[in-house]
Amino acid sequence: MGLISKFAEIKQQQTRDEPYVGVNIGTDVSNLLSPADLVAFLQVQKISHVRLYDADGDIIKALAKTKIRVIISVPNNQLLAIGSSNATAAAWIDRHVAAHHPDTLIAAVAVGDEVLTAVPSSAPILMTAIESLYAALVAANLHTEIKISTPQSASVVLDQFPPSQAFFNQSLTPFLLPLLQFLSRTQSPIMMNLYPYYVFMQNKGVVPLENSLFKPLTPSKEMVDPNTLLHYTNVLDAMIDAVYFSMNNLNITDVVVLVTETGWPSKGDSKESYATIDNADTYNSNLIKHVFDKSGTPLHPEITSNVYIYELFNEDLRAPPVSEANWGLFNGNSTPVYLLHVSGSGAFLANDTTNKTYCVAVDGVDTKTLQTALDWACGPGRANCSEIQPGEVCYQPKNVKNHASYAFDSYYQKEGKSAGSCDFKGVAMITTTDPSHGSCIFPGR
């Protein structure tokens, strides 16, 4: 029971700080909002925690005086310079942290991203870089307010299920043990990028989809750890506990898991048939509820890990597969990709503060494809298409796109704006802009 008691102090800390859900902001987006617009958007969506993949000075400045807490990052390509020179590390902290904090609330510095598995050649300098940056934080007297850690890929843990048998890849122990000792000494979290989506995709037939999406399970579907007899109702909890057991194997018992990335893609290629709007919506909506339930994990019900959803925007400039460009909660133009079902979680990520959303035809789709979707909506879909008949108020302008938008919106509103009801095989999109015109009032209004 030593493991549990060690966490008593952490539990007190956690009671003071309510668990939160943050979002990652990747910037491979064609028309990224300006820093000022981005921050205004975060405030409208009630997003209070963000993680950047660099230390973009304009975004950090725009976050000043907002109460939004930010994790800034040292990109992998800067590790060598920082790990080779204390002066470079001090200059980095001076420029990216000390110059902004506490006007901008910098919560942590993430040093690299998945370094041990993505750029193993940098593994030997990772701890040197971390220690140099920490020394610079101490010199600036910011080390008690700002944590330093480094995000790891889930693949550093082997045999994730059952969690009690999990252990760190032994070839990485020479790098992980000093890291964990540092995190323990500085009371910093271990940052983990944990994706049930990939666990599911790599173990289809073994891991049920319901467990991956936090869906309610019958007791027979729960995964039971034969050694601890703990029942796991979802994959993410099992992945988090696998990290706790792996740390315990190295005698580290007081470091908390922070999930720096998790999410589910809403679109994929032919090999990625589970990357759908419905699954992405279900995963992220249930994830948010799970964190706000504060139920912890089976091993540590007293500790709820904070999580950062990957990611805020679809990064349309990402290279294939298709899913890479479709992890976002929002499109680059800030319209929602889907509407989360998070009632009871406050105003957080309510997607649209007015709650008025419409479903319209996407630009640039050929008329024939749109006509097929329009015919389905007005026929089998049973949308109310009376207003787009000849002589009615929404007949003009007489074109397929206008008529399709009206029919799509009618169907979407009739279906209670449920996940997947504004897709029509990819030719429709959700918007917060009212498409009504003249005396033609769309159903969503």
From TrEMBL:
<keyword id="KW-0325">Glycoprotein</keyword>
<dbReference type="Pfam" id="PF00332">
    <property type="entry name" value="Glyco_hydro_17"/>
</dbReference>
<keyword id="KW-0449">Lipoprotein</keyword>
<dbReference type="GO" id="GO:0005886">
    <property type="term" value="C:plasma membrane"/>
</dbReference>
<dbReference type="InterPro" id="IPR017853">
    <property type="entry name" value="GH"/>
</dbReference>
<dbReference type="GO" id="GO:0006952">
    <property type="term" value="P:defense response"/>
</dbReference>
<dbReference type="InterPro" id="IPR044965">
    <property type="entry name" value="Glyco_hydro_17_plant"/>
</dbReference>
<dbReference type="GO" id="GO:0042973">
    <property type="term" value="F:glucan endo-1,3-beta-D-glucosidase activity"/>
</dbReference>
<feature type="domain" description="X8">
    <location>
        <begin position="357"/>
        <end position="442"/>
    </location>
</feature>
<keyword id="KW-0732">Signal</keyword>
<keyword id="KW-0336">GPI-anchor</keyword>
<dbReference type="GO" id="GO:0005975">
    <property type="term" value="P:carbohydrate metabolic process"/>
</dbReference>
<keyword id="KW-0611">Plant defense</keyword>
<keyword id="KW-1003">Cell membrane</keyword>
<keyword id="KW-0472">Membrane</keyword>
<dbReference type="InterPro" id="IPR012946">
    <property type="entry name" value="X8"/>
</dbReference>
<keyword id="KW-1015">Disulfide bond</keyword>
<dbReference type="Pfam" id="PF07983">
    <property type="entry name" value="X8"/>
</dbReference>
<protein>
    <recommendedName>
        <fullName>glucan endo-1,3-beta-D-glucosidase</fullName>
        <ecNumber>3.2.1.39</ecNumber>
    </recommendedName>
</protein>
<dbReference type="GO" id="GO:0009506">
    <property type="term" value="C:plasmodesma"/>
</dbReference>
<dbReference type="InterPro" id="IPR000490">
    <property type="entry name" value="Glyco_hydro_17"/>
</dbReference>
<comment type="similarity">
    <text>Belongs to the glycosyl hydrolase 17 family.</text>
</comment>
<dbReference type="GO" id="GO:0098552">
    <property type="term" value="C:side of membrane"/>
</dbReference>
<keyword id="KW-0378">Hydrolase</keyword>
<keyword id="KW-0326">Glycosidase</keyword>
